[in-house]
Specification:
This protein is of the alpha/beta class. The chain has two domains: 3-106 and 354-367, Enolase-like, domain 1, CATH 3.30.390; 118-341, Enolase-like C-terminal domain (TIM Barrel), CATH 3.20.20.120. Helices cover 37% and strands 17% of the residues. It is globular and about 60 Å long. The model has no long low-confidence stretch (mean pLDDT 94). Bound molecules: magnesium ion (MG). Magnesium ion binds next to loops.
């Protein structure tokens, strides 16, 4: 089987006005759908995170992959070493094509299932009210408990991650306290995207210690800052900001800066790249969790195949999926049961493209001037005093 063409379709997916330390999510999230065509008539699917800039890299990666076999992942990885994000997306499409060609699920190529179902976490956001937005305005600790309750009831999640760095730190501590009170047996985590100073991070960590927090994600900026915070708290620190490449790991381990690494197949070199990361984490007694940007069902399926085959991934995975109302897969959105997903049935990733939906979301991309999204500009429209500097507190 040889790769003959890589078909790329950029899409724009409506996104509610979710807040984070940079500002507020733009009205559309950008994704690129990959269809890796082969001379055997089998097509592999994948989904990349990004817009026009990544599109250029993917075009180059597709050209470089033409004539290669999707089975030889290491050869392709070396060939595309200058295009790591494009490689990450292409790798998933290769695995999907290979698995489809032999009528097996992708998880069989990743070592087989070690857990029947993959638990996910609520991704709790402070937010403004958007158009046709069923979640409303959530900008107080009390309103956030209401949001978490809905996530719990609608999806069955029993782990909840708060996207912090939005309200002043003491109000976010109060939010965590109310969440603990409302859900005494659930797991809680918070991620302020490195917007706090070292001093604020330590003060917040001390306040969170009695609440039995699963981990504190990227409280402050940089490895030295994280190490300074880690020395002062017994809450594990996790990251998707200071360690996002193998080259970042030796110093992070040496400085004892982090205790949990978030994998993400979109930038850790695909599903096999995340497997490599899992082995390293195991060796150095680091925990492994899973990161998420806005995404659609193809990515969600890939996340499930990976998590279901990775014993070291013991934390519930992050996902933005419930915030997206649209998808590009046949049958509509994948449905969580008791806060979990099982790998979709069928060969490969187990998902097929819905051509009408793909065309509709591609039209959004062409129509909307969101190709260079700027959260800060959006935020400044709402709050003229807003400054996306770090540390802000
Ligand atoms: Mg994070």
């Amino acid at each position: 089987m040889r790769i003959t063409n890589l078909k790329l379709t950029p899409v724009a997916v409506p996104d509610p006005p979710l807040r984070n330390s940079w500002g507020v999510h733009a009205p559309y999230a950008l994704r690129i759908i990959l269809e890796l065509e082969t001379d055997e008539g089998v097509t592999g699917l994948s989904e990349a995170n990004g817009g026009a800039a990544l599109l250029g890299e993917l075009v180059a990666a597709g050209k470089a992959a033409e004539g290669e076999t999707p089975w030889h992942l290491e050869r392709l990885r070396v060939k595309l070493r200058g295009l790591p994000r494009a490689w990450s997306a292409l790798e998933v499409a290769c695995l999907d094509a290979c698995a489809r060609s032999i009528g097996r699920p992708v998880y069989d190529l990743l070592g087989g299932l070690v857990r029947p179902r993959v638990p996910f976490a609520s991704y709790l956001f402070y937010k403004y009210e958007g158009e046709n937005d069923r979640w409303g305005d959530v900008n107080t600790p009390e309103a956030m408990v209401g949001e978490a309750r809905r996530f719990r009831e609608e999806y069955g999640f029993t782990t909840h991650k708060l996207k912090g760095g939005v309200l002043p730190p003491d109000e976010e501590v109060e939010t965590m306290r109310l969440l603990r009170e409302a859900f005494p047996h659930d797991r809680l985590r918070i991620d302020p995207n490195a917007i706090w100073s070292v001093e604020t991070s330590i003060r917040v960590a001390k306040a969170l210690e009695p609440l039995d927090i699963e981990y504190l994600e990227d409280p402050t900026h940089g490895l030295a800052g994280m190490a300074a915070v880690a020395r002062q708290t017994h809450i594990p620190l996790s990251t998707n900001m200071v360690v996002n490449d193998m080259a970042d790991l030796p110093m992070a381990v040496e400085m004892r800066a982090v205790q949990v690494i978030l994998c993400d197949h979109h930038y850790w070199g695909g599903l096999t790249g995340c497997k490599r990361l899992a082995s390293v984490c195991e060796s150095f007694h680091l925990g492994l969790s899973m990161h998420s940007n806005n995404h659609l069902g193809i990515t969600l399926a890939a996340m499930v195949h990976l998590a279901a085959t990775t014993p070291h991934l013991i934390y519930a995975c992050d996902t933005h999926y419930p915030w997206q109302e649209e998808d590009v897969i046949v049958g509509g959105k994948l449905r969580f049961e008791d806060g979990s997903l099982t790998p979709p049935a069928g060969p490969g990733l187990g998902v097929e493209l819905d051509r009408d939906q793909l065309a509709k979301l591609h039209e959004n991309f062409q129509r909307m001037a969101t190709r260079n999204r700027d959260d800060s500009a959006e935020m400044l429209k709402r709050d003229p005093y807003y400054l996306p500097f770090r540390p802000r507190w």
